[in-house]
Each structure stands twice: as structure tokens, then as C-alpha cells.
Amino acid sequence: MSVSATHPWSTLNIPIDHKAAVEGSHICIHSNVFFRSKSEFNDLSQLWWRLYHAGFNFFSVPANNQNNCAMEHFVQTLPRDKVVIQMEYDGYHYDEDGHPESGDPDVPRNELTQKLGQCRAVGFVDIFLVRGPLDHPETFSQLAAGLARCVGDGLADSVGVSNFQDPGHVQQLYDALNQEGVQLSTFQGDLNNFRRRQPRCQRDGRVIFQSIAQSSGNRTELRGHLGRGQTFHALCRIANRRQVSALTVALNYMVVKGFVPVVDVRTDDEVEQVIEATGWRLSQREIEEIDRA
């Protein structure tokens, strides 16, 4: 994946099986916040509109069963042909007897149909993202069949997986999807985990790997190895030298390394830090400083 030093980052091509690749921003905006009033939703919506107008058009809707999810409402206000919408699905539901419902190929389709019924203006999703962990790889063939139905029925253009702790499980689901004629488009997980042990499917240029960059609430936090130890200290040193935030440096680093960071944005400061991450590149020396940490 090549990235040029433009503002925002050069276009990310997300692979789709049956049509041209979808063009999205190199940073994905995600939020699982729920609003309690119309004014609270409007405040959040204004923040995300600022990002959209700054060139960020990749948005992720969390898995939830509530009707006051802010991101779910926000994506319905966007021009559908100008954005990439990812919708999450909890793949680890269990029935009353404790058996994984992922073994029922109708479950993913029913779940997505229900979600799209709540988001009528969306119509379909570009990426249907299955969240793990899934501890029953013997059900992957049925799960793959259910995801294939979502694609075949026009509910989703592509599928991805998230939070699979075992790279071997990613490969197994990847292979099961191939048997159904569906390509795994994205993987979302911890950058450090998959630098240590990469699934074979990462060598396939059609798979885009995402990694959660930070989660916001009362304060901004970096997740995973970026938010602790020597790596975090390296980010802070570079941030101090460049007079930007550690989050800004982390986002820039991840994009330069070929990852698509997923960032939770809820405040004005976070909007500015995300925007500041684009339009420039870390130097090779700075990248090596982070890599060595």
C-alpha cells in the first residue's frame, strides 16, 4: 500500500469482489458513544462532519442493539455514494444451550438485515465486520456461508474480521470464505500481535489490516503496545520535537506502516489531532526510532 504526503492521505482502495474497489480515507472514524439528547447528538455530529469535510470518509458503526447509537444515526446523514461504511457484528452469540450461534448461517444475515432496517438511509454496507474472539473454529464454514449470503443478497459488498486473537483463526476463516467465493477484505486487530505472527493471508494484497489506534472518553488513550512502555515513550519524544500530540504521531506512523487506524473521536481536540496526522510523513529516522522501542 503506497501513501503519498498529501492532505489528506492518498486514497485507500478497499477490495470488493464483484465491483471496483471502494475508495476511502486512510483513517477510519469509529465511536460507540450513545447520545441522551438531540443536542448531544448534534454536538457529536458536528465533530464528525468536520472530519468528513477534511477528507475522512471511512466510518465504522459499532455492534449494538440500541436505537441511540450516535454513529449509527450520523452515517444516515452522509451522502451515501461518497463514504465507506463499515458495520460491526458480534460473532460470538450463544444460544440458550451454550452453543455458538455462529454455527447457524442465517444469523449473520438476520443481524445485518435488522441493522439496515434501523439505518434505512444506508441501504447496504461496504464492509460487514465480524467481531471475535471466536473460540469455535469448527463453526467457521457455517459463519462463512452466512457472510456469503450477506454479500450475495446485496446487504454487504465485502466482509472483514476483528479481534481474532489467533492469526491461525484468521487464516481459517479466510480459507472458508474463499470456499464460498467471498474475499476477506479487512482485518482489524492489534498491530503488535500481528507483527509477531502474521497469517498467510496478509501476503494477499487484497486484505487491508486495520488496528485500533485509541479510545476516547474523559481522556485520549492509545491502545495496545502503542500506549505503553518504550513505544509510547518514543511516540512522546517525537511528539515533543514536532510539537504535536502522541496520538497524531501514532496515527501517522500506522498509516506510513500500511495500517488503517480506527480512531474514536468525541472532542474538538481529538478532531484536530486526527487532522494534524495527515499531510506529512514521519522521517525514516523517526520510524526506526519507534520500531526499535
Structure, explained:
With 293 residues, the protein is of the alpha/beta class. The protein has one domain (12-223, 258-281): NADP-dependent oxidoreductase domain (TIM Barrel). The chain is built from ten helices and eleven strands. The chain has helices spanning 38-53, 70-74, 106-118, 140-152, 167-179, 191-196, 229-242, 246-256, 268-276, 284-292; strands at residues 12-14, 22-24, 28-30, 58-61, 84-90, 127-131, 159-162, 184-188, 208-216, 220-222, 260-264. The strands form two sheets. An eight-stranded parallel beta barrel has the order 3-4-5-6-7-8-9-11, surrounded by four helices. The protein has a two-stranded antiparallel sheet with strand order 1-2. Helix 3 crosses helix 4 (140-152), helix 4 (140-152) crosses helix 5 (167-179) and helix 7 (229-242) runs antiparallel to helix 10. The two termini are 24 Å apart. Pfam families: Aldo_ket_red.
List its salient traits:
disordered N terminus, single chain, 10 helices, oxidoreductase, 293 residues, 11 strands, 8-stranded parallel beta barrel, alpha/beta
Describe the secondary structure blueprint for this structure.
Layout: E1 12-14, E2 22-24, E3 28-30, H1 38-53, E4 58-61, H2 70-74, E5 84-90, H3 106-118, E6 127-131, H4 140-152, E7 159-162, H5 167-179, E8 184-188, H6 191-196, E9 208-216, E10 220-222, H7 229-242, H8 246-256, E11 260-264, H9 268-276, H10 284-292
Parallel strand pairs: 3-4, 3-11, 4-5, 5-6, 6-7, 7-8, 8-9, 9-11
Antiparallel strand pairs: 1-2, 9-10
